[in-house]
Amino acid sequence: MFRDKFWLSLVLTIPTLIWGHMLPAAFGYVPPAPPGARWIAPVFGTAVFLYGGWPFVQGAIRELRDRLPGMMTLIALAIGVAFVFSAAVTLGFPGMPLWEELATLVTIMLLGHWIEMRSINQAQGALAELAKLLPSNAVRIIRDASGGERTEEVPLTALTDGDLVLVKPGASIPADGEVREGHSNVNEAMVTGESRPIGKNAGDRVIAGTVNGEGSLRVLVTGTGDRTALAGIMRLVEQAQTSHSRAQVLADRAAYWLTLAALGAGAITLVGWLAVAAEPAYAIERLVTVLVIACPHALGLAVPLVVAISTTLGARNGLLVRDRRGLEEARLLNSVVFDKTGTLTLGEHRVVGAHAADGVEAGEALRLAAGIEQDAEHPVAKAIVTSAVESGLTVPRVAGFEAIPGHGVHADLDGRRLAVGGPNLIRRDQIAVPAQIEAFAAAAARRAESVVYLIENGRALAAFSVADAVRPESAEAVRRLHAQGLKVVMLTGDARAVAEAVGRDLGIDTVFAEVLPEEKVAKIRELQHQGLRTAMVGDGVNDAPALVAADVGIAIGAGTDVAVEAGDVVLVRSDPRDVPRIIGLSRATYRKMVQNLWWAAGYNIVAIPLAAGVLAPIGVVLSPAVGAVLMSVSTVIVAINAQLLRRASL
Question: Active-site residue 339, yes or no?
Fold first, then answer.
């Protein structure tokens, strides 16, 4: 709307300038004088006022109705005064009309608003970009009564939970779901911010809008429409962009008081010039210039634009801001409390240590143990197999598998009879354990880790310690937080030995162990009473009370469930390194807000006296049109500075 009104108003302004008084005086020409030439500037000036200026008048009416005068009030007052005065002069009141000043003022204001709206729309464009991630159609697999299959292409709206869809190589995944068949690498960067493609196999979950790699997948639909992770992300981004922060409240209050100050300055300017016997046209021109140049456009744009950019920047990197106050408070944090299980650790058992006897290679021992354990159901067995696969080892097939309840398993592999079991099997069969393996097992037991042995011919070949594995990213997350000057605390219900071992490995400052779920809030309060502004990082479910009690609640590992209600910030990935990134984003956002607020407010300290004519005795006078240009330039500078936030390194 502002764009269209700008272009037509620009066309209407040209005759106003040609038959006005500024251009003929400046360039020394006499405009053509057809019949009625004296009415050209008034007619076109009036058209610009009624067509281009009407949105400002409507905005002023809304502001005054809400008793919150602001930039629209100042603009409407400026162009209204210029119009009424110019009409009076045209009808016989002594003075110089301001038709061309009025027309150029409205046109420049329309241009400034157009630029402002473009900046805001570009900042909020991530929502539209997220919506574009979804394909328009999906390939649904239909199975008939005889067991045969056929495919049909259907719109996304036709998909329901339980449908089976075929995702071809290079295609976008149409809905949240679970892989039933196939293997591929899926690019989830546009949703989670994870740059590496993620391998997907049967049983793995996939997110709508992510892009399939080289393989084909058959996916069972579990979420469509508003229930997809992508829809949840869009809701959170929109919610964050419309929520108010303290900085926004401050900016709104400053804009309100600046409006009142501008009205007061305008009145003083008018009365002052009339008091020194200035021409009424000159006094009114000074009044109009003050009102225009003091418009709090830049001040009103300073915070919203920065927040819009920061929330969309976060969303593109898997950092979802539910409440802008949470993002704002993150810069003030001086301690971060992590839940352990599922946050600093995987929440799944893995082999966390291994020691092999002389002459046995640890990787080969793990491969053999995984082969023996692959048919077992025990969680420790699954941990050994998973660890071998994640290490890139090929798990061999075995024969003669036999489970020994409460002790371990036996199996034949390449003509060898091997066993894997715990201390009970060692004692029952009186297995010989080398001294270095015994020392390794004793150290693991002190850390409350489970120990299993690989056994052949009555001798332990290797031992493996199994525990909830620490995420490989956790140590770097703690290091980055320390570099940012924050204290790192771990809060867990696990045994003290386990918790302290994890704390030592990661370099955590304080460990609270054996804490019951209902006691977590008390620990957060304890830290706050010590004067620490604290963030709580947890899974958003079991830790919900602590997340709410903390100064900033950060729900980590949301994955496809982005509608976490307890946290101020939701991290799409299960990556603790995103916590220091949120703090970095908060600090960068605040810097931009402060820079913009200082510029927007400081500009008026110089601009208003200049517009009022304090330098008129030495020949420096600003016309309303020049004042409009300066005001628009101020707004553009704020917009450009806000856009520079996109370069922030997270």
Answer: yes
| 404: pLDDT strictly greater than 90 | no
Tell me how far apart the alpha carbons of residues 306 and 521 are, in angstroms, rounded to a whole number: 33
Count of beta carbons in the 10 Å neighbourhood of residue 434: 18
CA dist., res. 318 & res. 336, Å (int): 19
pLDDT (tens digit per residue) in 83-96: 888 888 888 877 67
Q: How far apart (Å, rounded) are the C-alpha atoms in residues 568 and 550?
A: 10
Q: Which pLDDT value is given to residue 112?
A: 67
Lay out the sheet containing 416-421: strands in order across. 345-356, 459-470, 450-456, 416-421, 408-413, 399-404
pLDDT at 29: 75
Q: Give the relative orientation of helices 99-123 and 40-52 as an angle to the nearest 10 degrees.
A: 30
Q: What are phi and psi for residue 529, nearest 5 degrees?
A: -70, -20
Map residue 378 onto helix, strand or coil: coil
Alpha-helical regions (H) of 374-511: 379-390, 423-428, 435-446, 474-483, 496-506
Predicted confidence (pLDDT) at residue 238 exceeds the cutoff of 70: no
pLDDT digits (tens, 9 = 90+) for 170-187: 888 998 899 999 999 888
* Residue 183 to residue 109: CA distance in whole angstroms: 57
Instruction: Give, to the nearest 10 degrees, the angle between helix 246-275 and helix 71-90.
Output: 30
Q: What pTM did the predictor assign?
A: 0.65
Read off φ and ψ for residue 611, nearest 5 degrees.
-65, -35
State the pLDDT at residue 91: 87
Domains and CATH numbers, the chain: 136-170+176-223 (2.70.150.10), 314-344+471-580 (3.40.50.1000), 347-469 (3.40.1110.10)
Q: Could you give the maximum distance between any two Cα atoms of the chain, in Å? A: 120
Say how many CA atoms lie within 13 Å of 216 toward its Cβ.
6
What pLDDT is attached to residue 50?
Answer: 93
Average pLDDT, the chain: 83
Residues 159, 140: contact at Cβ < 8 Å?
yes
Find the catalytic residue in 339, 543, 568, 578.
339
